[in-house]
Give the backbone structure.
Amino acid sequence: MKKLIASSLFAATALLAANSVLANGTPAPEAEPSSLEISGVVDTVAGYQHDDKDALGGLQGGLADNIIGATAADADHFRMVVDQVEIDLQKSFGENIRLRADLDFNDFANTGHRVTPAIDIEQAYVTANLAAGNGIEFLFGTFNAPVGVDSVDRNDNWLVSYSSPFRYFTPTNVTGAKLYYAFSDLVDLHVAVVNDLNSNGFAGDSALPSGLFRLGFNWGSDDNKSTLGISGGAGPEQAGNAHWDFFGDMDAMIALSDTVKISGEGVYRQTNTLVTGANQKALAGFLALNYQASDVWDVTFRGDYAWEINPANARGGSGASTTGATWIGFEGTQMGGSVGAGYQIADGAKMKLEYRFDYAKTAGPALNSDYHSVLAEFAYSF
């Protein structure tokens, strides 16, 4: 019994001594960095498209997201492609520092894809949480622009093809610095300073950066959340500092019930050109409805519209989207409609089908044209 008491006293004394050392300034061991998290997606697309009458450029129809290089008069296209293999890497260091890199491997050999390299850095950034107010997130690197409804990753959208605002006019991936602040669960704000609102590199660009923001409003439960966003951006993106690009965008995703959601977006885009009085202007928007018919099936309907106001010879040609280097490619309007269905095969595995019709009405000498597309997508997320 005396030995047990002595042993207990010795252990207690050692513990008190250890605590005393820590209390007297010996730092506690630093938190070990978290393990590396790896996720991603394999996304494949197949499609048929018929082009009618005049060829109006490579950004028409359901295969226009640079799956085909260009349209042609009275032509048929069929493609089966690996749209992307994406590997996402994340690593946290304590509670305040996080690194992320999204690497996209593209089937460039079989498509005129949105980037020339077969490997695209979709995102690569570091974030730090700053202790101010409710907490400010500071991000630096390349990241998805917080604008609009459509996701850069096709598999995250309701339909296979992209909407006109995303395809032609709004920034998608940008490089720079961003601050994010949540005033509450209902209101948040993104503010960023970036190299460029376009994805055309620095060729002929101003030496000054551009800026963009998104003010978001959120309500509803996690399973039935609705959002409304007001976004804008501006910057001098041609040689010299007097000719600016700018856009204004409003997007919404509204849950009408547990099974029905509507989404919509409207954008105005302008590029001030070097030609006096010939600024390039455009309007675009869409409205979509999604019905979750069961645990595995959903159906989507979408109407799409784009209007490029100025003549083609006044276009700046810079383009806003990673899905292409130009706007709609002609002076006039483009109207489209899509109906699609999604089937959740298993956790992480989904198939989508879509029929899309586009009608292009030109203001120039080219004939009006229409495009019929049938698309299929299979994506597996891991």
In short: The domain at 40-381 is CATH 2.40.160.10 (Porin). The longest helix spans residues 2-23. The chain has one domain: 40-381.
